[in-house]
Write a structure and sequence with these properties.
The protein is α+β, with helices and mostly antiparallel strands and 280 residues long. It has one domain (5-271). It has eight helices and eight strands; from the N terminus they run E-E-E-E-E-H-E-E-H-E-H-H-H-H-H-H. The strands form three sheets. Strands 1-7-6-8 form a four-stranded antiparallel beta sheet. Strands 2-3 form a two-stranded parallel ribbon. Strands 4-5 form a two-stranded antiparallel sheet. Helix 1 packs antiparallel against helix 3 (152-160), helix 6 crosses helix 7 and helix 6 packs antiparallel against helix 8. The relative contact order is 0.28.
Length: 280
């Protein structure tokens, strides 16, 4: 049995994004790396929960994957979200001391991030395999190493906002005259302090690198007819994704949560988020 590696490093893995200028309408967390759990390559439909902004129909994209054993993402009600928010993380991740986009992207840890019950709440720990986590009495919460957005509080926020475009864009508008308002606005959506911080850093970096691409794609749906991302989202993924993935830890794809942006199924980690009662 592998001993759990308690998450005490300055910040580890994951993904996000939100463009901060009034004219830009494309925004979402950046895609995650494919799950470490092996699944066959999917063909056909994509994973997500389409809205009018998606550009794909429910016949082209849905919250189910047929790779290997068929799986459908569960629906979580308000009571479950409230339970997630009630859980106490005993050692929250520290705030970043510097903008991670000013340095080389840190390595993205592999393995799995798991919830470990403790007498006064829960801890987060990294495990090499899902089996290691189970043997230690832990419950995997997402694929990849733990990071700034790995808490159950951040999971609750991702569940509440399957499409973060509008609320995060509103935070960006507030930052046009005062950039210091962006992070508190994102935190007010329900994100933990460290998670809100990396979202804010990511947002600014994407604005700097992808402005023209996003202006050009202003009226594009999230997904093009062939399922590819529109140029704005693709630019964010290419330019801001590596650092975000290495810092945030949790994304909606590596947590098995469908979003309004559809993605191939072979990058989705399948999870029902069934945590023991003593975590809450």
């Amino acid at each position: 049995m592998s001993a759990p590696l308690r998450w005490t490093h300055t910040l580890a893995s994951g993904s996000a994004w939100a463009l901060l200028i009034a004219t830009l309408g494309c925004t979402d967390e950046t895609d995650a790396e494919p799950s470490q759990r092996p699944t066959p390559t999917c063909s056909g439909g994509q994973f997500g929960r389409p809205t009018s902004a998606t550009g794909l129909t429910s016949a082209q994209c849905g919250p189910s994957c047929e790779c290997g054993a068929p799986w459908t993402a569960p629906n979580f009600d308000a009571a479950f979200v409230a339970r997630l928010r009630s859980a106490s993380l005993t050692t929250p991740p520290p705030r970043l001391s510097d903008n991670p986009y000013d340095a080389e992207p840190p390595p993205k840890p592999g393995g799995f991030c798991a919830v470990v019950p403790e007498p006064t709440g829960y801890a987060l720990a990294d495990f090499v395999t899902e089996g290691d986590a189970a043997q230690a009495g832990a419950t995997v919460t997402h694929a990849g190493g733990c990071g700034a957005c790995s808490s159950l509080q951040d999971l609750a926020t991702y569940i509440e906002f399957p499409d973060l475009t509008t609320p995060v864009r509103e935070c960006g508008l507030k930052g046009l005259n005062d950039p210091a308002q962006v992070e508190p606005c994102i935190a007010a959506l329900g994100f933990s302090p460290a998670c809100a911080q990396i979202w804010a850093f990511n947002t600014e970096h994407t604005r700097q690198r992808c402005l023209q691409s996003c202006l050009d794609a202003l009226d594009d749906p999230y997904n093009l007819p062939d399922g590819a991302l529109n140029p704005c989202l693709q630019c964010d993924e290419d330019e801001s994704g590596p650092v975000f993935k290495a810092v945030a830890g949790r994304t909606r794809r590596n947590s098995g949560l469908p979003t309004a942006i559809c993605r191939p199924c072979d990058g989705v980690f399948r999870s029902h988020h069934a945590y023991p009662d003593d975590v809450y």
